[in-house]
Amino acid sequence: MLKRITLLFILLPISLLAQEVALTRVEPPFWWTGFKKADLQLMVYGKNIALARISVDYPGFKVKKINKVVNPDYLFLDMTISPAARPGIATILFREKEKVVGKYLYELKERKKNAGKKGFSSADVIYLVMPDRFANGDVTNDNATGLTEPVNRDNPDGRHGGDIKGISDHLDYIRELGMTTVWITPLFENNQPKYSYHGYSITDYYKIDPRFGTNEDYVKLGESVHHLGMKLVMDMVFNHCGSEHWWMKDLPSPDWVNQWPEFTRTNYRAGTSTDPYVSAYDSNLFVRGWFDNTMPDLNQRNPFVRNYLIQNSIWWIEYAGLDGIRQDTYPYSFRDMTAEWGKRIAEEYPWFNMVGECWMGYPASVAYWQKKALNKDHFNSWLPSVFDFPMFDALSRAFNEDESWNTGILRLYDVLSQDFSYPNPSNLVVFADNHDVNRYLDTQKNDIRKLKMAMAFILTTRGIPEIYYGTEILSTSGDYKGDGTKRRDFPGGWQGDPRNAFTAQGRSVEENDMYNFLHTILQWRKTKEVIHTGRFCHFIPQDGIYTYFRYNAKETLMVIMNNKEEAKIITTKRYDEFLKKHHSGTEIITGAAIKDLSQLTVPGKGVMIIELKP
Ligand code: CA
Fold first, then answer.
1. Which residues surround ligand 1, an ion (CB under 5 A)?
2. How far, in Å, CA of 252 to CA of 48, rounded?
3. Which of residues 467, 498, 524 is at a domain's end?
4. SS3 for 530?
5. Which of 82, 89, 81 shows the shortest CA–CA distance to 30?
6. What is the pTM of this model?
7. Which residue, 121, 142, 322, 383, is the most exposed by fewest CB within 10 angstroms?
8. Active site residues
């Protein structure tokens, strides 16, 4: 101990004299001309960089203000980019006295043309992919240099080696199935020693994890997705970062993250965010508590954190030509920041869509977070889309329960009847499962009929359907417990897999039946405006039969679900307001012609989707 102290005393005066100044990184690493907002805030990081003098010599690109923070290793440069600034490369010089100690070639790129672009919408169906578990297209990146967790396919919670190449290789499969949008769980660098595969512990917001590929690979993936007429949704996380994020070892200021005397977990009670009776204690713990000890909670009250995260999203939208963002743990962040984030993106990309994970059980709570909600506190999130978690809950119960006054298929009816809460119900993302919950089949005692009912429902109700990869081949979570087993490898995605379920030959009879069921509805849905934008009307469920109609000026569609085990013959007099002008139809799952609509036979635990004809 004594020796170390002596050594410190010897070293200290020398280091003070030398005052080493160095430049390590500038973020965002480049930007664009032609944005509506002329301001850009650069985070500059490097040893004692706050001691440096800054100069930029580039027409229309100026330093407006230099912000210093507690840690001298950071500077935040407020830049302005005038409308006259041309694309090109600006040189930012960092000097200590007269000596140049750092030089950064800052590129201002020309913006992509966005004319005619549309965000994902109710005309789309989202295929949700967990990249580590979908397909390993490049085994050479499985154990990238400098990243701590090696690949281990035997560990359900370990890295399995899937990557961007694996997704690119199977885009044709995704499109052929009938999907129109791909949501990939986060691809950012997660240099964490454990559980790094899931991607939600980001260690570099500007870098695709090398085990998934490069930034350029991601941009190319976006181009391929667009070339096939599909859309790309990026999964982002601004509530927390990974504990191994590079800045955690040298924070710009202590309040960069929400600090606690000791590790303090959030209560995960998202309902506190809308509860009028919430205690300050619970509310504070929800927003400022950490999601996990490996997930430090970012403090979006700090204006530099706020700018950093907002600019990061705009950077990826522009760089990768995104069509949408899925924002993780949305209400866990400081809400004023989330609203500013949504507003800034909407200003630059009015057509863009973003969906927030607001995991709450009641429509009123979820609706609070949708853009233009009529909230008593006048909060407007600017978030166009939210996940329909109340419907997810209803779907997990509806087909398992016995029919009664308030159970069974009535669950679906009840949730839809609450749609008055939402400013825009057709911009809800509807789903039966995702990467965070048990696979739908597991919750339905492996009854494929119930899975088909759920899929037919989400594909014909209002909103934007999301289907989790593997649903089409009856994937289950199986015997294992824990998150890893909800995210099993897609068979055939790895060299040497005993079968390739990406092909009909590699699928079992039952799997092909499910694949074909989805394929039929998905392909048909693509051009069905009546589902994309048509109106919705339903009838109170009776004795397990739930009937609803989708209609517009051109077309009417009838969906009937039977939640009873036995087939039922129903007389349709009750639906006269829709059927009086229609006398026949086509059932689209079977292709069967229906000559008489007055009486219909609905299979037990079954569903019919009927295009009505005069
Ligand atoms: Ca790989």
1. 136, 138, 141-142, 161, 163
2. 12
3. 524
4. helix
5. 89
6. 0.95
7. 142
8. 328, 357
